Amino acid sequence: MSTPLSVEPEEQQRLIQTKYKQVLDRCKLAAQCAQRDPAEIRIVAVSKAQPVRVLQAAMDSGIARFGENYVQEFIQKAATLEAAGDRVGPSPEWHFIGHLQRNKVKYIAERCTLIHSVDSLRLAEELSQQALRHQRRMDVLLQVNTSGEESKYGVRPEEAATLAETLLPLPGIAVKGLMTIAVFADNAAVTRPMFRTLRELRDDLASRFADEVHSLRELSMGMTNDFETAIAEGATLLRIGTAIFGPRSSNK
Fold first, then answer.
1. Which of 106, 152, 114 shows the shortest CA–CA distance to 130?
2. Phi/psi at 97 (5° precision)
């Protein structure tokens, strides 16, 4: 059931808070089953196509980390929330999780905590330039296409080491790990090999390249339909939208 836009803010907050708690409980159980510390796992609430007042309700419910897919939508939301002078609490932590074009980097460089979708040297070079321009360090993840689907972005697993090696010397950016999007399937037997591939690749790259700047510890993988399997395979960042906000409807 989706979160209706016509409900009162208090009711909307209550609905999101309930859904979010359910997700947290499922994460905790999955982590325990995998003999992992639940504190190692963070949720990125995928807020694409959600209006600002839904994000505000989510923030009031205790959600502080949001993932956006589209640059124009992201900067409009961020600017609106920043301009809300009566808002109480810290600013949200923004993650950019969608495909990113080089000519759009300048619009998000100041606001993003983590870019999940770096899949080329040219994009990384632009991120480096913008990071230096804003006198900050920009944390990034390398996107790897573990499913082999042509419709998905990301480098092939066998190309990841070469890309990582060329990115590490770039000033202003820090490679923190890997990201993948598995095929959409409810069957863990289908998605598990993709998550396992990413974890094994991360472990290999971390043993070769990790240092105090480039830690390569993060694994951004797992969404509403498969996050428990991703946790079992080592996910540290879960990108969850539907389980928190409900399915997106065509009028959003």
1. 106
2. -115, -5
**Tokens in use for 182?**
């598995």
CATH number for the domain running over 9-245: 3.20.20.10
- The Cα 47–Cα 81 span in angstroms is 14
CA gap 81, 96 in Å, rounded: 17
Tens-digit pLDDT profile for residues 114-131: 999 999 999 999 999 999
Question: DSSP 3-state assignment of 213?
Answer: coil
Query: What are the strands, taking DSSP E only, across 34-189?
Result: 42-46, 65-68, 93-96, 112-118, 138-143, 173-179
Compute the distance between CA of residue 109 and CA of residue 104 in angstroms, rounded to an integer: 9
Query: Residue 118's beta-bridge partner residues?
Result: 142
Model pTM? 0.93
